[in-house]
Amino acid sequence: MKYASVAALVLAAAAQGLYPSSLSAYGVRPDLILVVLIWASLRADPVEGAFLGFFAGLLHGSLVGMKLGTFVATRTIVGCLAGSVTIRLFGENPLVPVVSALALTAVADVLFLLLSPVAGLLSSLRLILIEAGYNAVLVLILTFVSAQLELRRRIRLAQSRF
Amino acid sequence: MLSFLRNARFLTVAGLLVVALVISTLHSRAAARGRSLFVVSAVRVALRPFQVAGVKVGDGVHSVTRALRTRSSLLRENRRLRAEVRRLTYENGLLKDAAEQNIRLRRELGFKSSFPLPVVAARVIGRQPSGWFSTCVIDRGTRDGVRPGYAVASFRGLVGQVFEVSPTSSTVLVLSDSTSSIGALVQRSRAAGICKGQNSDVLLLNYLAPDADIRVGDVIVSSGIGQLVPKGLPIGRVIAIRNDPGGFTKHALLRPSVRFDQLEEVFIVVRAEEE
Questions:
Q1: ipTM for the assembly
Q2: Are A76 and B53 within 8 A, CB to CB?
Q3: How far does A21 lie from chain B, in Å, by closest CA?
Q4: How many domains is chain A partitioned into structurally?
Q5: Do the Cβ atoms of B208 and B248 come closer than 8 Å?
Q6: Which of A60, A72, A80 shows the shortest C-beta gap to B13?
Q7: Whole domain around residue A48: which residue ranges?
């Protein structure tokens, strides 16, 4: 699972720069690395989530080429928080990934703007909300697809035992 | 009261944040010296094959979607020849794409041969990896002689400046980024100002003298101040002019010459500082 999460983060990093602008919502593109980080960390514990976040931040910061430390710090915190969610909440509920993605994207963006004020917090509110919504939809799709794949894997495993 | 300090989870996260702080400091120091941090270079080198593969897959998808679009109209017209039309349309899509690329490359080659400074052609392998910054990644790095500060242009005009370089790729700070600023001139009257990005599809030309001769529709070009960006590269066209409060300066809004979200091939102007 850990290797799969790391591989998914690398693929997300490669896809982030190639995401077609025609698929943007109101001029805002989703943060694919953050989407995969939240999805992967929701299935991990807080420490694993923090390490995944650290790696995701390193990837994202390296791609952008600026504010590397801010990317690493914010993603580490988000990974840890996402890892903490399923300790307290029932992870199978589809509302959990959606609300988590909404809240954690907002946390990541607000923390980022507090640590590196590249834009005004209030003026960026619309941008943050659209991105959070977009990310939430993608996390839900990713969660649904991975749950289906996991279900099929279990069925195959059970069938092979008989 | 401070028992959380002995919590392994807290210590791990705190440790990672300290490492983040160290990385941040090292990255800033490396950037100040015009170098790239080892970790950043390693990540970029590792990601490059995925990015290049992604671009190729994107091109393939583009060709196929174009072919499919054409196919649907042809199917309606000629149902009996469906199989034949599908094959021909697909081939047609690929050829059209190749022809368009050929025209574009010829135009850029013309730009390259007519350009007075040495340039290196590069391909965009990643665009705007974060919503907060307007940057793009190109497939040329220190191995190709690229250095931070070099100007990047397309045949339409100035794109931005290289600000971080790894051995095989570079990150370009696009003119539309809010941290980007560059000396600019009104081509017609030579009135000077500073062109700044606003993280939108409009650029801002500010610090213009109150009596500066500037009109809507004027072409704005780079001023060449700083030597790394050559003089005379088109930046954009004036779409509005406003007086600043106090009346000491005025500013203009520009529509960029380059569509930054549709960049595919660019040129890096190398060794301009030696000219």
A1: 0.78
A2: no
A3: 7
A4: 1
A5: no
A6: A80
A7: 2-161
Domain boundaries, chain B: 39-175+264-269, 181-257
Chain B residue numbers with beta carbons less than 8 Å from the beta carbon of A69 are 20-21, 23-25, 27-28
Q: How many CB pairs under 8 A join A and B?
A: 135
Q: Given the structure tokens 């995925």, which residue do they identify?
A: B50
Query: Are B24 and A14 a contacting pair at CB < 8 A?
Result: no
Please list, in sequence order, all residues whose beta carbon lies within 8 angstroms of the beta carbon of residue B216, skipping any fewer than 6 positions away: B238, B239, B240, B241
Q: Which CATH class is domain B181-257?
A: mainly beta
**Chain B residues lying within 8 Å of A64, measured CB to CB:** 129-130, 133, 135, 171
Name the residue among A17, A54, A60 with its Cβ closest to that of B16.
Answer: A54
Q: Are B199 and B178 in contact (CB under 8 A)?
A: yes
What CATH fold (topology level) applies to the domain B39-175+264-269? Thrombin, subunit H (2.40.10)
B130:A119 CB<8 A: no
CA distance B241 to B210: 11
pLDDT tens per residue, range A35-74:
999 999 988 888 899 999 999 999 888 888 888 889 999 9
Contact state of B127 with A17 under an 8 Å Cβ cutoff: yes
Are residues A31 and B130, on separate chains, in Cβ contact within 8 Å? yes
Predicted TM-score of the model (pTM): 0.70
User: Could you read off the pLDDT of B84-137 as tens digits, one per residue?
Assistant: 666 766 677 777 777 777 777 777 666 666 566 788 889 888 877 677 788 888
